[in-house]
Amino acid sequence: MAESFIISGETKREKYQALLPQLKSLTEGETDLIANLGNIIAALKQTFNFFWIGMYFVKEDTLVLGPFQGPVACTRIAFGKGVCGSAWKEKRTMIVPDVDQFPGHIACSNASKSEIVVPAFNKRREVVLVLDIDSDKRNDFDQDDEKYLMEVVGVIEKLLISE
Ligand code: SME
Question: Ligand 1 pocket check: which of 53, 92, 108 to mutate, most ligand atoms within 8 Å of Cβ?
Answer without folding.
Answer: 108
